[in-house]
Amino acid sequence: HKDLLDVSDLSTGDVERIFEAADSFLEINRRPVKKVPTLKGRSVVLFFAEPSTRTKTSFDMAAKRLSADSFSLSKSMSSLTKGESLKDTVLTLQAMNPDAIVMRHGVSGAAQFIAERLNCSVINAGDGWHAHPTQALLDAVTLRRAWSGDFGGKTLLILGDIAHSRVARSNVNLLTRLGVNVRLCAPRTLLPPKVETWPVEVYSDLNKAVKDVDAVMCLRLQLERQQDGLLPSLREYSREYGLGKRHLLNAHGGAVVLHPGPINRGVEIASELADMGESLILDQVESGVATRMALLFLFLTRKDQGGERV
Ligand code: CP
Question: Which of 77, 83, 133, 152 is the most buried (most CB within 10 A)?
């Protein structure tokens, strides 16, 4: 493939190759000397039109650890602020001959819009509510390690603002394909339209939703994407849907907790739980660098890029 717009672009074989490469890079990243020459001479533009800590930094680190050159552009520092269009911005970036553009944008479909207009690889780093494929892949890499490689029969609860979450959409898509039973739990106002067509079980009561799960993924309330009046109040939300230690008593023994970040302690997750042994939140960040190294490696060494891979 030229582009990664969502996890549905990937076959089961592609996902397996990403897992294997990510595992190797995780080991390399734990060494004192982490840099390898694999992508020397390649270049990657990181074009982030929405804020990011984890995704942008980990792509930057991934590129540098593979010896590729990375160049960053944010919306506020770009000529988008002078009225230049997205199309002209990305055509300008492409004229500099990068091998890939990693883009985050607030509009669903923005990654596809640019991928159709560019010859270089486009990797979607999150587009509106639509998709966040690299987050879903790093979450799967993290769970695969926690579950010793076996997704079959495991149950994951995704809890919180699912309506506005590209992370939930990509994770449901990928993890159900891998054999995970996915449950969603949210107040009705934070469930997506047509949720009944998703391959999931839907709950509104957290105490029931958490029973016998193997993992809980908490999501941030995306207040920046919500109109007034959609929410329960923050206090009501955290009382009914904030994950605490007590909820895990009803989960399977050894159940783990994930969160894509950024976290709001005391709102969607109790602060003490975020720091406990059950929490894989920082493991997700570590997996994120390795997973993005795997993706840059696989996309930039495709056969049509002069490499050996398909
Ligand atoms: N999980 C995630 O996408 O985090 P950032 O917004 O910090 O990149």
Answer: 133
| Residue 219 alpha carbon to ligand 1 centre in Å | 11
Pairing of the two strands 155-159 and 181-185:
parallel
Evaluate whether the domain defined by 133-281 bears CATH number 3.40.50.1370.
yes
As a whole number of angstroms, the distance between CA 155 and CA 208 comes to: 13
User: Would you identify the CATH topology of the domain 7-131+285-303?
Assistant: Rossmann fold (3.40.50)
Do 94 and 115 contact (CB within 8 A), yes or no? no
- Res. 302 pLDDT band, cuts 50 70 90: confident
Please state, for a pLDDT cut of 70, what percent of the chain lies above it.
95
Segment 44-68, tens digit of pLDDT: 999 999 999 999 999 999 999 999 9
Does this chain's domain 7-131+285-303 share its CATH topology with 133-281?
yes
